[in-house]
Each structure stands twice: as C-alpha cells, then as structure tokens.
Please model this.
Amino acid sequence: MGYFSWKTADTNKSISNIDSSRGARAVWLITPDGMAIHEDMYEGYGEFGGFDAYALLAKWNAPELCKGDPNHDRSIGIGLFYGKDPVKYPLKFADNPNCNYKDLPASETCPSQGFFYDEDDDDEW
Model:
C-alpha cells in the first residue's frame, strides 16, 4: 500500500507524513459534530488521532452500511470518497483546531501523497 494524504481545508497545505522530507506537523480532522481530532505524527495511511478517516466518512454518511469492522467500514468510506456522488459530510482537515466544520470546504487529496514533494512545492508547505 502506498501513501496518501489530503490538503487542509482552511489553509490548503499538504498534510505531510513522518517519512517525508518535510516530516509531520500537527493537523486536526474536524468532525460534523464539532470535534477536532488531533494528529501530530501522521504516518501516511489515513489514521488521525487513532481514527481511520475513511471509516469515519462511512459512519457519517452511510451508518446503515457500517458493521463496526474497521476494514469493512474503511472500504465503505473509500467508496464514498472516490464515488461520483457527493457526500453530505466530507472529510475536512485543518491547521486550526477551532475551525467550524460547516464553514470549511471539503479537503482535497494531496497530489504529492503527503510524501513525494518537488523542490517547487513550497506553496503547499
């Protein structure tokens, strides 16, 4: 499995992982119910503060399909994230933990996968 990541919704900065040349930095996964899940050592596989981001996406948008099995729920979330239909509660990551979920746009995937940065990618950092 390769690395993957997103950009923060509030600053549009790449969420780099601990193995990248940039190293990890503190980010928060902002939830629809007002929580800010802190992660300061992102490993590049979608886990933030002990929560799988895709499993949360499934729980928020298709709870009837979730079984509480992490792999199953993650698969549902991946299908929702990459599906053609928009979801009501998309993933939103932020540099500021005080952001309001409803005020943020959905986070976009990071084209550098949180790891493969060019020297010209300073605008993402």
Observations:
- Helices lie at 53-61, 70-82.
- Residues 27-113 form one domain.
- The chain is about 20% helix and 10% strand.
- The radius of gyration is 14 Å.
